[in-house]
Structure formats: structure tokens, C-alpha cells
Amino acid sequence: xxxxxxxxxxxxxxxxxxxxxxxxxxxxxxxxxxxxxxxxxxxxxxxxxxxxxxxxxxxxxxxxxxxxxxxxxxxxxxxxxxxxxxxxxxxxxxxxxxxxxxxxxxxxxxxxxxxxxxxxxxxxxxxxxxxxxxxxxxxxxxxxxxxxxxxxxxxxxxxxxxxxxxxxxxxxxxxxxxxxxxxxxxxxxxxxxxxxxxxxxxxxxxxxxxxxxxxxxxxxxxxxxxxxxxxxxxxxxxxxxxxxxxxxxxxxxxxxxxxxxxxxxxxxxxxxxxxxxxxxxxxxxxxxxxxxxxxxxxxxxxxxxxxxxxxxxxxxxxxxxxxxxxxxxxxxxxxxxxxxxxxxxxxxxxxxxxxxxxxxxxxxxxxxxxxxxxxxxxxxxxxxxxxxxxxxxxxxxxxxxxxxxxxxxxxxxxxxxxxxxxxxxxxxxxxxxxxxxxxxxxxxxxxxxxxxxxxxxxxxxxxxxxxxxxxxxxxxxxxxxxxxxxxxxxxx
Length: 492
What we know:
With 492 residues, the chain is α/β, with parallel strands linked by helices. It has helices at residues 2-11, 16-25, 46-56, 72-89, 97-100, 107-126, 150-155, 157-160, 193-200, 221-254, 258-272, 274-277, 286-292, 329-343, 350-364, 370-374, 405-408, 415-425, 436-445, 471-480, and strands at 35-40, 60-65, 133-138, 164-170, 185-188, 314-318, 324-328, 413-414, 449-451, 464-467.
């Protein structure tokens, strides 16, 4: 049994505890409970792990997709039919015509039918000793017109039929689901970030980098295998870091399970690694590659599904120098989509727009210049950074070359500082009925503002935040509220 568990765990990792618990309860050589409940959110490996264990073991089973059944009679008839087929096909037992003709119109009739079928199977195969049969009811909580006592009745089948074990697979069981508390439960928790990356890294997407030049002679099989292993190591290095970036930027708040996470990663992979395939970046320059491709992690076009996918067609153009260039309509559509997203603005309330503008100013202005830009105590003309008039002589230029703050990305700021800037740039006093905290929470849910510190209370005054929009977006937002944002930036 240990070899069986190791083999299944290598194919379906990160579920070792659940696999050992389920294999102990369904061990063919040990007695099993009459009912078992497997519960967890969608796409957490409940059905996959159960089917893999039953296929690898010697236990015969019947699998019923309960979400395909409408009425209770439909479900009981499907259960009886599946058990008959499993006994005849897997065990090779011939059932009598009167047994095959029996109908299971309700749970009581189903108990009689299953008792005769499994009793005949056990006596014929092992001389009166009944073998174990597992009845798996997948997605039993999604049965269309289930009666209130249907699940409780199905759970009692194992008490009347000793060789039957019913396995209920559902999402979230209620405390009194089966009207008893003696049924063992196995919980399948959601995958963590590390588990998701580990599972998807077992089958990584390939870079498929074209060779710089063809080899002079055909390589040997050993050389090809070594090159393939080296390419796979480089692909895995880029893919694991790419998955972590996708999770932190998009999938953490938008994907509900591993299937949606993989779908988002598959859509973004080709566009993300295009500079590597073209030779502009190496496989180890992931940080520089992310800085170049960071705009694709700020838009939602890879998250939303399209009803009509964009067709990929090749357009060939000839320049004046005679060089032929080929472009694809999908790439052009992606560029157009990026430009549109950069220029688009959300339809936000007035104060939410000003809060977002204040957040941008707090992220890209140093805190020491807040008094210079946002004070209302004096109407004197603002002086340039460094003091003195423009073109004033004296002094020598600094030998240290400063990098523009916009190139360094948004810097974290305190929430109380952002609110102080907001009250400084708002033209009129804010009414007491305006709930600024709710509007900040709305900006956070839209991912226009992101938290930069893991504090206890998200809206506490000392928490650090970071703006998540670019300059084109902010400039369009400022024009919509008639605010000259250029005059309040230290570096334009």
C-alpha cells in the first residue's frame, strides 16, 4: 500500500495527508465505514485523487455524477444502473434477469436492489465472503431537485449493506447534512501559492528559443538529451518566477482555483517571453524583463474571457528601403488594447478621483517637498528645487547623476499623508457626509491602490500604500476634474 501511495503522490502532489487518510479508510484488507465525506472548494483534487486511488487499488467502485441528475428518482436509478454495470464488467458476475429488471424508484427500493446485487457478487466470487464495493457520489450537493432527507437516506445504505461504502464528494457540508456525526470527513483545503507553482512547474511552458545558427553537423543523441535538459532548466527558471509574478499581480485576487490561475498564465506567457525569443534579453535577466513588460500586469485583458477571439492574420509590408516586415493582427490588437487601457479612465466619483490623484502625488513626490507644493499659508511664488532663480550662477554641478522618480516606480506612502494631500488639493471643504474610507476601499478593490505593508487594519493611518496607475491614466483623470497635476509634481 505504501508503494501505491508513493506512486499516486508523485502524479498528484501536495495532497499527501488526504491521500493517506483516504487510502486507510478504503483499504481492501481493512473494514471501512459505511459513509465518507470529502469536502473542499472547487478544483482542489477531491475527485481526481479519489478516482486515481480507486483505479490503482483492487477495490471495485461505481462513479455517479450527481450534478447530471434532476430528480431523486433519476439519481437512484442512475446509482442502480452504475452498480449493475460495475459488477458485470469489472467483476465478471452474471446477474439474473429478475435482478436486472428491478427498478430503484426511491431510496428504499435502491437499498433492496443494491443488497441483492452486491450479495450475489460476493457469494459467487469468494465463497460467501462479501467483497467491498465503493459507491462514489460526485458533486452530490449540486443535485437539481434533491429532497431534504435524500442524503441522509443514501448515507444509511452502508448500514444495511455491509459490503458497501458510500463516498460523498461536495463543496461545503452543513453540520447536520447526513443527520449523524459519526461519519469521517476529509478536508481538501485550497492550494497555497507555493503549491500552485509547484504543481504547474511539473509541466512548464517552453520558451522555444530559435537557435542563433544551425549546427555544422548533426549532434549525437547524448548531446541532444543534454541540450534538452539544459533548455528545460532555463525554461523552468523563467516559468516559476513568471508564475509567482502572475499570482501576486493578477491571479491572487481574481482566480478562484488552479484552473483559472493556469488559464491566466497560459494567456500571458507568449507575450511575456517574446523579448527572450527575439534575443533582447537572456533567461536570467528576469528583473529587467519584468520592468519592460510590467504594463501587461496592470490591465485586465488576460483575465476577461472574450466571446469572439481575435484572429491572428499576417500582414506583409514593404518599407522604402526594400525590407519586408510581417506583423500579426493579434499583436497589433494587443498594442492597441494597451494604448486604450492607458488612456481610459474609470467612471469614478469626484472625490475618488481626487483621492487617486493625491495617491499618485504621494507616490511620486518626496515627502520633504509637501510643504512647498501643498501648503496654503502663503501665496508666494514657488521656488524651484535647489533654491535661487533660474539660470543663477555660482556653485558647481553635482557629480552624482539622479534618476527620475518616475523611472523608479511608485514609492509607498502613509495613508495619513495621502489624506493630507487630498485635503490640500480639493478646491472646497469636504462635507462630513462623505465617507472617504469607503472610497479608499473601493479604489483598493479595483486595484488602483495596493497595500505595501501587511498591517492588521487595512485602513489604519500608519499603513503604507502604493498607487497602481500610470502617468497617462493620471493625466486623463486630472483633466476630467480640471486639476493641473503637472504643477504639483517635483519631476514632470
